[in-house]
Design a protein that fits this description.
The chain is mostly helical. The protein has 2 domains: 110 residues, DNA polymerase, domain 1 (Orthogonal Bundle), CATH 1.10.150.130; 159 residues, hpI Integrase, Chain A (Orthogonal Bundle). It is built from 15 helices and 3 strands. It has a 3-stranded antiparallel sheet with strand order 1-2-3.
Amino acid sequence: MENIQKPLWHSQTVMPSPAVLKRGPGRPPKVAPLPVAGAADRAPVEVGVRVQPLRGLHPVRALLREWLLELKVMGRSSRTIDWYQQKMDWYRSSGGVENLEQLNAFELKRFLAEQQERGLSDNKIHGFFQVIKSFANWCSREEYPVDPSVLRMRPPKVALQEMSTYTTDQVKAIFEAAKVGWPQLAVKILLGTGMRVGELCNLQLEDVEDDDDAMMFLKIKRGKGAKFRRVPVSQRLRREIIRYINRSRPDSPAPNLLLLTSGRPVSVQTACELLQRLHKKLGFPLHAHKFRHTFATEYLRRGGEMERLRRILGHTTYSMVMRYVHLDKGDLGRDFDQRAPF
């Protein structure tokens, strides 16, 4: 029988030409692994440049830079991107793998088990898993080689904890301790609307929608997940916002609603430092998200509807709303003697 020679592009030892490598529309060309003589020949990877395999491997460091760049393009906030980077940097400095091909379910379980032994909370361990799994999912979508065992791995359990809220006396003490001006208005908006501290600091004057004969609304133009929503304002909070704009807000070209006396916008860090000062002054811890818990709990306790609360908080599902809502034992015991069979 006559031996028919195969074309060179079918050979297992000869690499195909760049024109033969198939690529989808809009996707960077897939790079074939190339052998490298030594570590000295490795060139630094620039942000935005598709990662070139080294010794047939894909460095996690370079892939991480490409992933974070995509998160920025997709509209993730700088705080979210920093949180992702901190988690990945901690993983890499704690004995994490150097190349993507070494990342598998056993390696991820090893890292999470070490964090459990260090005494980290369930939420922090779940955060590590969430970030590393998101990174692996992105690598898979970009057609980088990912061990399937990582993609199949289930998240660790997180023990449900009772959502803490501020008491009526604590709220009163916070309002009295905060200075008149932006500090006092900031804590009142957090409590009266349930918005996040980042959303509060991004509010601008044009986001205050006030009709003389109707309600006031605050526009959240870029909330979590880049979602837009309007938040209603009570008449009491409406009075405080108008009073701050007319009496306390300094003249400044900055468009933000909350301004320092120097005219600069109030940043998230400045707002958090305010809560720390109030903590030292009052003697109990203050957290921005605890205002959100308090708002959600009080809203339902006073007869508010779950659907409206979901829209006010900016969540897409009711399960997320229920994580913020905590009814205390007084609500659980109300009318219990009349309802219980024994």
